[in-house]
Amino acid sequence: MYLKTIIQGRLEFGTEKSYEKVTKMFLQRVETYYKTDVIFKFEDVFKDEALCLEIPRFVGQVTDKAFRTTTGLIGYCAQFAVAGSVRAWLINEGEIVHFETLEPDSDKGAVQSFVRGRKLVKVKGKENEAIAALSTAIEKYDRHAQAYERRAKVNFLMRNYHDALRDYNKCIGIDPSIPTAFYGKAKIHILREENELAIENLEESIKKSIALQTLYWKSRRLKAKCHIVQKEWQKAAFDLKLFTNRNFEKDNPNRFWLRWAFYHYGNVLMEMEEYGDALKAFDKAANLPEVADGLNEAEILTNRGIAKQKAGKSGYAKDIKDAASKGGKKAKNILKTLK
After folding, report:
1. CA angle, corner 240, sides to 175 and 328, nearest 5?
2. Are the beta carbons of 200 and 183 closer than 8 angstroms?
3. Per-residue model confidence as pLDDT tens digits over 66-107
4. What is the mean pLDDT of residues 162-186?
5. Which strands, in side-by-side order, build the sheet including 83-92?
6. Three-state DSSP class for 86?
7. Angle, vertex CA 331, rays to CA 276 and CA 298, nearest 5
8. Residue closest to 184 by CA, chosen among 228, 143, 151
């Protein structure tokens, strides 16, 4: 049985000695044990000039055995690496059957410092310790893309946006397959009201991630938000349509933003004078539970009422009255004209 697989990433070996060891081991194991069960040929993934193993993105149909053999071999190669990460997905009918993150886990100084720093990134109040550990990893190996990306995130959380942007750019310059670096850059550009640059980076985040990842949909939603600011209604509608059509699992954080997405999709469709579809979007927003997404029920009811009126539907006055009773200022002003 053949299943869809996606594999992408990069492993850095740092020295010619480590690179020579890993390439000999790879060739020996393929010849001795695996033969035709490995997806990649040696010359397709090993880059002599960069002393690395690189898979920009592979998408294909493979057997479960070939997937596990290949990821097992790459995982073994990772233990010779000083930095890097390869991600691999095995997918059946849109569901992830198996997922692997293949990274170095050795006693090398750069590896240990990075692992420690990455853990500290998740601990509130340990930001300076995280930066120190990640900086040590970079000092030990200055092409540590993941360390730059994680340090950028900490700098972003500490509002050191200049330093964060510098580190995101360093990460991308070394390994442009890391989608979180583009997503992080985009957030900085949004704060600076540089929406065109934000959109460019979000497009890269989408390209470098897959639709089964949370990040892919976070990038789609944020890109739609930027298009709205730019009044690029068609582009915003495209992203919001995809987002609102997605069936997110209960534990997926993107599910939290569905009400926001339906509401703004309704507004975008209103701008495009597609009032019937806008009304459907507002209906769905109104039927979702209230969450801390920056919206209130009065806003949704007000715009649904306007959409009903524009679409020639009845019941718009009731929506406006209900919105006014909930404190909606816009609804109160509209109510005066209705009277």
Report:
1. 125
2. no
3. 999 999 999 999 999 999 999 999 999 989 999 999 999 999
4. 97
5. 46-47, 52-63, 2-12, 83-92, 95-102
6. strand
7. 75
8. 151
Q: According to the model, what pLDDT value does residue 337 have?
A: 83
Spatial CB neighbours of 163, under 8 Å, sequence gap ≥ 6? 152, 155
Give the per-residue pLDDT at 187: 98
Contacts of 33 (CB under 8 A, 6+ apart): none
**Token pair of 50 as six digits:** 């960069």
In this prediction, residue 142 carries a pLDDT of 95
Rounded to 5°, angle at Cα 9 from 42 and 126: 140
Q: For residue 37, how many other CB atoms are within 10 A of its CB?
A: 17
Q: What is the average pLDDT score of the chain?
A: 95
The answer to whether the beta carbons of residues 116 and 110 sit under 8 Å apart is no
- The mean pLDDT of 103-121, rounded to a whole number, is 95
Q: Which two tokens stand for residue 155?
A: 């700098």
Element (H, E) at 84: strand 83-92
Predicted pLDDT at 107:
92
Fill in the amino acid letter for 51: L
User: How long a stretch of residues is the chain?
Assistant: 339
pLDDT, tens digit, 9 for 90 and up, residues 255-299: 999 999 999 999 999 999 999 999 999 999 999 999 999 999 999
- Residue 250's contacts (CB-CB under 8 Å, 6 or more residues apart) are none
- The alpha carbon of residue 91 and the mean position of all alpha carbons in its chain are separated, in whole angstroms, by 18
218 contact partners, CB below 8 Å, separation of at least 6: 183, 253, 254
Percent pLDDT > 70 in the chain is 100
